[in-house]
Amino acid sequence: MNWTWFHKLGSPKWFYGISGKLLPGLSIAALLLIGIGLVWGLAFAPPDYQQGNSFRIIYIHVPAALLAQSCYVMLAVCGIVGLVWKMKLADVALQCAAPIGAWMTAVALVTGAIWGKPTWGSWWVWDARLTSMLILLFLYFGLIALGNAISNRDSAAKACAVLAIVGVINIPIIKYSVEWWNTLHQGATFTLTEKPAMPVQMWAPLLLMVLGFYCFFGAVLLLRMRLEVLKREARASWAKAEIQRCLGVRP
Amino acid sequence: MTSPLLEAIALACERDLRLLFEHLELRIAAGDMVQVSGPNGSGKTSLLRLLAGLMQPTAGVVRLNGKPLDEQRRELARNLIWIGHAAGIKDVLSAEENLSWLCALHRPASRDAIWQALAAVGLKGFEDVPCHTLSAGQQRRVALARLYLPGPPLWILDEPFTALDTQGVAQLEKHLARHCEQGGSVVLTTHHTLAHTPAGYRELDLSRWPA
Amino acid sequence: MSVFALLVAREARLLCRRPAELANPLVFFAIVIALFPLAVGPEAGLLQTLSPGLVWVAALLSVLLSLDGLFRSDFEDGSLEQWVLSPHPLPLLVLAKVLAHWVFSGLALVLLAPLLAMMLGLPVECLPVLLLSLLLGTPVLSLLGAVGAALTVGLKRGGLLLALLILPLYIPVLILGSGALQAALMGLPASGYLLWLGSLTALAVTLTPFAIAAGLKISVGE
Predict the structure, then answer these.
(1) Domain B6-208 adopts which CATH fold?
(2) Contact residues, chain C to chain A, C-beta under 8 Å
(3) Whole-structure pTM over 0.95, yes or no?
(4) Which residue in A56, B4, C23, C165 has a CA-CA distance of 20 to 30 Å to C113?
(5) ipTM attached to this prediction
């Protein structure tokens, strides 16, 4: 089978061109979706019958938490692609996506804590989901630290890929063991997301926010990757021309 | 024309954003001895590591018997003796223990053969002594004793003469030349001029492949 | 298979000639256990309740500490290059290495643990569960830690980074191990936890050697 098309996918120049075309669309979609979802969710959705208005933080918390988890899976997929097919672009994606994932995890943790204060009466409760998120944040920190510690760029990418794959195999085990630990040590508390039959006026803005967050993630990732690709290809003539164009220097 | 034992095609090596060499071409056939030379930091060790498959080239490909190195690690392992700057000698183990482990790892050898090899590098009487009590030159001899056992045809040696005395250097030079004349191949780095060279000797000056 | 046995024997010989490397993690284990009564007070009831967690956290940290140097000397003296270039599969070689390391350091820790646990007031009836849980759990700790050790072996100061990479991955073992002990302490059956620990061990033995080998190849190829 001919794999040249697949390797073309990994060509930095090709990526730079296609991502330049995708970027405006993604950014506008992210802005619109998040804008509409936010106004709808915060101002027009009905308050929760138990939690009142404090439930509205789910419009930030849930998309961030979802994104944080799927971002780690994406890192592992990038790792596999990078290790197996030696695609440099997957390495770039892995290292550029890790900090975004870490930030999303941090956002999910902070919003969870803010929601916890009126609901549970304390900023931090060792709830299974929050604890899993905290561990996920540590996993992201490890990945970022490893990437920074290794000076050789290719080795750093490969090492991060191995760690991400090991991590992603471990995540389900960690998640289930933490849930188990939690049910043994405290009774079930009511959680942020699992509630009986959310009405459509409540989940529709949530859906918009989730989609918006994914578009936002895509846009930020592309931006970071484009910068990294330019750095790596600084010797290539197309990259030099592009940098001069961006700086407004006429050759 | 048969394909050479080892061949490098359009090899490029980049270390820490610095291009060491590119478009490097090298063919090593049976009987060849290639001395890689160049100033410090010109990428001699990197080239050797690329040829031994320890490192991935930034661009280009290394081929063994006409096929890319990545696809035949097993074949490479059967054909190659690699002695790096650090030669894999444990200083709490004795010379014999070290050598017999290295043999077990690559190609098993009898106890007699190991003792003969140690005697050949002038370590008779030091077989049972822990390596940390040996001098640097003697430790290097333990590593080099592998070359005196029946083994693979391709030798890649990084600075093999370090810490050896004059007599040891002369002996090793003759041994390398004999290996090439018997159909083996040697790639090595060293800063001194070799006194004994086989017919297939040539020098590869890395400063001729400026980045 | 003979190279596997030879490597285990060689590692055993190396460890026996440098006994300090074996003793240090054990002393560390004992000191950490001794710190807790000093920190939380000598009240017997409290210490007994805390003992499952304390023993496991201390065991986890001392395994981690002992792993920092697992591949370091092999990396520095060029042995790893020889391993990578040998015709034997690297995952098999690293499995032998980790096995030898576990037999000498992990097993010693398992044997020391009952003594320290009894000093914390853990009843004698719980000791079989303690031994079994450590016996099943410490190989996982060694194998997972070896992945981190392989990835950080080329770095000058890898110790702290190793902890950062690996401690989050240790959490399931910690939960299951201390959970088994707590169940035993409360007089409940602990076999569920132990079976889970056993399956984690099986998973780690089959999968981590490949990750360790990949990590070593990356570190050697740097």
Answers:
(1) Rossmann fold (3.40.50)
(2) 144, 147, 151-152, 154-155, 158, 161, 164-169, 171-172, 175-176, 179, 200, 207-208, 211, 214-215, 218-219, 221-222
(3) no
(4) C165
(5) 0.90
